[in-house]
Amino acid sequence: MSPTVLTTSHRTLLDALMAAFEDAQRSPDSVAEPIAILWPDPDGQWQDVVARLRSSYPRVYSLGSYNPTTLTGPAIWLRCVADGSLPDVSPQAGEVPVLYLPGVSRQDLRAGGDSPSHLQPLVELQFRGKVWHHPNNREWTADGFLTSEAGLGLDIAKDATTREAMLRTLPLLADVDLTLFRGRRLDATDFDRLAVDDPIRDLLRWMNDPDGTKASLDGPKWPAFRSMIRAQFGLDPADDPRVDAAAKLVRGGEPWDAVWKRFCENPRLYPGIPRLLRDPAVAGGELPLDTSRHPTENDVREDQLRKTLEEAARLPSHEACGQVLALEKEHGRRREWVWAEIGDSPLAMALEPLAHLAESADEPLGAASLDQLVERYVTSGWRCDAAAMAALGAPLRAPDEAAVHAVVRTIYLPWLDESARHLQELAASTPDRLRALVKSPTPERDTCVLFVDGLRFDVGGALHEVLEARSLATQLTHRLAPLPTVTPTAKPAASPAATAVAGTPASDDFCPVLTESDQPVTAQRLRDAMAGRGVEVLDADEVRLPTGDHGGWTEGGQLDQLGHKLGIRLAAELSREVERLADRISALLDGGWRRVRVVTDHGWLLMPGGLPKVDLPKFLTETRWARCAVVKGDSATTMPVWQWYWNPMVRIATPPGVACFHAGNDYTHGGVSLQELVTPELLVERGIPEAKPRITEVSWARLRCRVRVTEGRGLRLDIRANWKDPDTSIVAAIKEPDAEGQVALVVKDDEYEGAGAVVVLIDPSGHVVDRKAITVGDA
Predict the structure, then answer these.
(1) Are 474 and 684 in contact (CB under 8 A)?
(2) Residues 138 and 89 in one domain
(3) Are 370 and 499 found together in one domain?
(4) Which of 145, 178, 352, 677 is the most exposed place for a label (fewest CB within 10 A)?
(5) Looking at the domain assignment, is residue 25 inside a domain?
């Protein structure tokens, strides 16, 4: 099977190989897709490239002695891989394996019964799979692929010396930007230069993996490398131990500062170096000029930070806040150390939102009226919730996670409880005002109401920021959820059909009824009621043009579902849910809706270790949920008692503060707290285009991203996993565009290849001017 490779679109050998394999998987209509791609290589020319290729294209399996860790095995094992009968090894459904066959020719496979016995299990795969071969029906050789117009189309000299140099440097050639080689004839010097043109890189590679580096520097390359390192760094890789190089790197000074700088630009390329720097022989030598260069120093500080956080969790809340802020001053700078970039400073990273939480929670929310308290919360108080969620969602190891969660509980729980009790006092004195602040959306032409179950105000604030960054004009306001703050009661009140709903004399599940039918309000009946009033009801992922005068209704998001399912793990999912909601809003606006109004039913409480429990005698209640209960008749209770929103004659008991009637609830809702009661409402419209710098073009050569912008003076470009978080940058270095508005960014680790990310254009103050969602390495 001959690949269709556009030589101008694939800048590296690996790019072209992966494109060729993807092309080989395609079949004409009515022809079954291949179950495997066979890659014969009679001379074994590709063997050194395969290991490098596998890190980017993990569906490559090799013929050889059985070794599942390197995806290598005999022919019968490869046959099982292709048939999908080895679930722990075979690719996922829909992915076609590439079976690399060193020492095997096409003729060996086509000989059928005359094939060597050890290859016969592969013979019939020619018919259910495809053989990757040159257009001349022979095997793809390395020089053939590099020079063929069906491959990379390079002009390479035909002499034996050049061919030997090309084959010798093939593994290094795999990642080289081959656009630098086009337009001229290449000879042996061009290929040999790949081995010695970057001594700092090769020195780091040797420190990272001496055996692998020496193996890759075969022939004249290894002597050339030794000579250059002796001359520039006073070290002989053949005679001196690596710990000598590590000690020099840690101590610093010229010329080792340049080596350290290169390591810091892309530390994930050299995973063995942090382990090397932890060698006791390195630690026991001369003290480094800069202690941040020693990973052991960072390890010690991480351990100290964890122990101090564990101690802080046992302090009173006010003292714990002070302790966290002191720790931020001491450890915050470690977020700039290289060890944070490779994930070795998780507590230092989590300390940032913890410090924000400590600053916010150290001051209780006080107000003289219900309206003032709500205003204080929507103005600034919700940021305390946001900081707590960021700390709880930080990626941490188990001991670190336990320490952070304990501190969050110590600081956050008293603030939550105090603000909830204050709210309950104010609300009890003005019950009519509590009801008046519950508002339902009015049907509007060309406006689609997007209902999101459990969109708490801090999550709504995050959504507002994401939408604004997408240049969507967004107004964030608030409304109060009806009591109790559970979906059966609150969702009808958030719908355009609220006027068609009424309460019943008693409701065990807090579910009102439709006035026209006296039937309980279910999700489908509510949609039918809206449709009966001219509201266009869209399915969760449906997009269509508005046609009526009464707007639309759709639902999205999984916040409440995830909360009940994941509990405390919900915190780690919030940013992804926000992005999905923003995508849904953008799709509705792109689909023809003039406005999208985002509403919700209620918020929620989330607390590591669970919320405190209070006892409510069962004989006093008709039904009891985690945070609310229907009180029997005129029964007296010491709990706060409220009127059901849909029928004031029905009395509802809720726990004081943020307590629960059940034990073990880390996620719940239904009670009276700012987090459950104060909900966001967002009105989103298309923004007015501004004449500002824009990202106009993004292209890839594997992990090298070329970006063009309309205006680049004073601006910088970055690639981030989360566009608004500079700590999620995935590039080796953030760069300024050149005079023509162009820049090349290098992704620092091939583990990001195929992942979603965002190219961001940043102004001098650090604000994102423009952004563009991309898939890493997607040409």
Answers:
(1) yes
(2) yes
(3) no
(4) 352
(5) yes
- Contact call for residues 654 and 663 (beta carbons, < 8 A): no
Output the CA torsion sign for 716, 720, 722, 727: negative
Token pair in block for residue 434? 């509590």
Compute the mean pLDDT over every residue in the chain, rounded to the nearest whole number: 89
Asked whether residue 670 is domain-assigned, the answer is no
- The rounded Cα 549 to chain-centroid distance in angstroms is 40
pLDDT at residue 8 greater than cutoff 60: no
- pLDDT tens, 675-701? 999 999 999 998 765 567 889 999 988
Q: Contact, 574 vs 389, CB < 8 A?
A: yes
Give ∠ CA 137-142-143 in degrees, rounded to 5. Answer: 90
DSSP letter string, 161-190: HHHHHHHHTHHHHTTS-GGGGTTS-B-HHH
Q: Is residue 671 part of a domain?
A: no
Three-state DSSP state, 473: strand
Lowest-confidence region among 131-135, 249-253, 332-336, 619-623: 619-623
Instruction: Check which CATH number belongs to the domain holding 725 and give it.
Output: 2.60.40
Residues 319 and 463 in one domain: no
Judgement on whether residues 352 and 427 belong to the same structural domain of the protein = yes
CA dihedral sign, ordered 203, 208, 210, 212: negative
| Mean pLDDT calculated for residue range 752-756 | 82
Range(s) of the domain holding residue 633: 611-665
Query: Are 118 and 44 in a shared domain?
Result: yes
Same domain, 499 and 637: no
List alpha helices for 25-74, DSSP H: 47-56
Backbone angles phi and psi of 210, in degrees to 5: -65, -45
Q: 94 in a domain, yes or no?
A: yes
* CA nearest neighbour of 194 among 171, 163, 213: 171
Structural domains counted in the chain: 6
| DSSP classification of residue 554 | E
Q: Are residues 339 and 395 in the same domain?
A: yes
Torsion of CA 121, 127, 128, 134, to 10 degrees: 100
Q: Is pTM beyond 0.85 here? A: no
Instruction: Single out the residue of 20, 5, 45, 15 nearest to residue 153, CA to CA.
Output: 5
Contacts for 523-526: CB closer than 8 Å, 24+ residues apart: 523/491, 526/491, 526/492, 526/495, 526/497
The amino acid at 299: D
The DSSP H or E segment spanning 643 is strand 641-644
Identity at 166, one-letter amino acid code:
M
**What pLDDT, in 10s, does the model give residues 731-749?**
888 988 888 888 989 888 8
Of 431, 466, 493, the residue that ends a domain is 431
**Residue (of 215, 252, 257, 260) closest to 237 by Cα position:** 215
Pairwise CA distance, residues 115 & 106, whole Å: 11
Q: Do 547 and 682 fall into the same domain?
A: yes
